[in-house]
Automatic annotation (TrEMBL):
Pfam families: NUDIX (PF00293). This is NUDIX domain-containing protein. Its cofactor is Mg(2+). Residues 98-228 form the Nudix hydrolase domain. The keyword Iron does not apply. PANTHER family: GDP-MANNOSE MANNOSYL HYDROLASE (PTHR43046), MUTT_NUDIX FAMILY PROTEIN (PTHR43046:SF14). Keywords: Hydrolase. The lineage of its organism: Bacteria, Bacillati, Actinomycetota, Actinomycetes, Pseudonocardiales. It comes from Saccharothrix algeriensis.
Length: 244
């Protein structure tokens, strides 16, 4: 199931009304002021088949239905078709080295941070994933959260940009990460994130002051993650750390 906050649902109803009233406007132009990967369009691009269209856009004066109406389905199919597509992940591995561009979300609710636990990682980390060619970092974090937890959240300002260099198993890794602030809507129960298993991952809320006890990764960003103001640029090279 794909969940949309109330403002996102309202934007869909307004967009449908404009499209239905003219019959000619392009679906991607009826949402005035909303970026292509904004709260509404991004959610529908990535998961419109899971979204109960008729519940968001019921017929005038009629009840909502469990199945989409043909005109609604046509509208959303065109919306997806006309939306810009992204290419492969911006990540590669060479002879003894690797590079990755990642975007992640800082989602705080009642003093707790939304984190991801993965089978292959010892600890937790902010949800997100690799940025794709032709895609902005903000678009990537929105897409990843829709794919991972089925919730469409408005992407806020970047809080942190990190550059990490480290060695592992004889391979030199370099990773650039963009961390964006996102608000969890008050009209969505936070327990939803525990109901969406995703490819060996699970999601939960951890009190901010308990994050070190949960093996938060990367630990270098934690002192800077919740600072207010403009984005922080953090560079760390673990090769320079004292040997244990």
């Amino acid at each position: 199931m794909l969940y949309l906050s109330a403002p996102a649902l309202d934007s869909k109803v307004i967009a449908w009304s404009r499209y239905d009233g003219t019959g000619t406007a392009s679906p991607t132009t009826v949402e005035d002021g909303e970026p292509p990967y904004g709260t509404g369009i991004g959610a529908l691009r990535d998961g419109w088949r899971l979204f109960q269209v008729s519940r968001a856009c019921p017929p005038r004066g009629g009840p909502a239905r469990d199945e989409p109406f043909p005109k609604h389905q046509f509208f959303f199919e065109k919306l997806v078709a006309e939306s810009p597509s992204a290419g492969p992940d911006i990540a590669w591995w060479g002879s003894g080295n690797s590079y990755k561009l990642r975007a992640a979300g800082i989602v705080v609710h009642d003093g707790r941070l939304l984190v991801c636990y993965a089978d292959v990682v010892d600890g937790c980390f902010p949800p997100g994933g690799k940025v794709r060619f032709g895609e902005s970092a903000a678009a990537a974090v929105h897409r990843e959260l829709v794919e991972e937890i089925g919730v469409s959240l408005a992407v806020g300002d970047p809080a942190l940009i990190s550059e990490a260099v480290y060695e592992d198993g004889g391979v030199l890794h370099q990773e650039v990460g963009f961390y964006f602030r996102l608000d969890w809507p008050r009209d969505l129960p936070p327990g939803l994130v525990r109901q969406v298993p995703h490819e060996g991952e699970r999601f939960d809320w951890v009190p901010i002051d308990e994050l070190p006890d949960h093996g938060f990764k990367p630990p270098e960003i934690l002192p800077h993650l919740f600072r207010t103001g403009g984005p922080i640029h953090l560079v760390f090279d673990r090769r320079t750390y004292p040997s244990e």
